[in-house]
Amino acid sequence: MKLLHIDASVLGDNSVSRQLSAAVVQQWRDQVPGLEVSYRDLDAQPVPHLRSSSLAQSDPAEVADAEQVLAQFLAADVVVIGSPMYNFSVASTLKAWIDRLAVAGRTFKYTENGPVGLAGGKRVIVASSRGGLHTGAPTDFQDPYLRQVFAFFGIDNVEFVRAEGIAYSPQHRTDAIAQALAALPQPEELAAA
C-alpha cells in the first residue's frame, strides 16, 4: 500500500496541521505492514504556480516535477494532506499542487454527460487547522473546495480531522489538538469504508 503525505503549512514546527498529518501518517505506519510513504513539503519544495510557460512546457525541469507530482498522486492508495486554513481557504502552495493534479485524460475527462473522474479508489485524509471556528459556516471555503476538487477527480472518500479555534487562546489550541488527535481515523476503518 502506498501513502502520499503532503504538508502545506508555512509554520514549520509550530504548525498544527503538520502535527496532525504526522500523527495520521504515524498511525498508518504503525498499523499497515509494508506501507510505502512518499512525502512532499510544499513550503520547502513548492510546486510552481501555473503560468503560460507551464502550459507551453517550456521549462523541462518544471515539466519533470509536474509529472512526478502527478505520478505520486496517481500511485497513492491513501493521500494525507496537512492543510491549514489561510484566508478562509487552502494555502496557495496546496492550490498549486492541486493544479498539477488536474490533468485532462489523467485525473478527469469530459464526456457528453459532463466530467468523469479518473483517479477514484483513493482515500484522502485532510488534517486541517484553523485559527477560528469555521466548520459549516459561510467562511469555510477550505472543506467544500477540497471535497469538490477530489470528487472531480473521482474520489468520494475525503475525510477531515480538524483543530479549530487554535488562535483563540493557548488552552483552545491545546484542547483542539487533543480533540483532533483523539478523532484520528483508523486505517482499517478507512479500508472498510
Describe the overall structure.
By secondary structure, the chain is an alpha/beta fold. Helix content is 40%, strand content 21%. The strands form 2 sheets. Strands 2-1-3-6-7 form a 5-stranded parallel β-sheet, with helices on both faces. A hairpin with a 2-residue loop joins β4 and β5. The mean pLDDT is 94.
List the helices and strands and how they pair.
Elements: E1 2-7, H1 16-31, E2 36-41, H2 52-56, H3 60-75, E3 78-84, H4 92-101, E4 108-111, E5 114-117, E6 123-129, H5 142-152, E7 158-163, H6 170-182, H7 187-192
Parallel strand pairs: 1-2, 1-3, 3-6, 6-7
Antiparallel strand pairs: 4-5
Strands ordered across the widest β-sheet = 2-1-3-6-7
List the uncertain runs: none
Mean pLDDT value: 94
SS summary, helix count = 7
Please tally the β strands and state the result.
7
Shape: globular
Biggest β-sheet description = 5 strands, parallel
**Sequence of secondary-structure elements:** EHEHHEHEEEHEHH
Portion of residues in beta strands equals 15-25%
Helix content: 25-40%
Intertermini distance: 16 Å
What class do helices, strands and sheet pairing give? Answer: alpha/beta
| Computed Rg | 17 Å
EC number: 1.6.5.-, 1.7.1.17
Catalytic activity: N,N-dimethyl-1,4-phenylenediamine + anthranilate + 2 NAD(+) = 2-(4-dimethylaminophenyl)diazenylbenzoate + 2 NADH + 2 H(+); 2 a quinone + NADH + H(+) = 2 a 1,4-benzosemiquinone + NAD(+)
Organism: Stenotrophomonas bentonitica
Keywords: Flavoprotein, FMN, NAD, Oxidoreductase
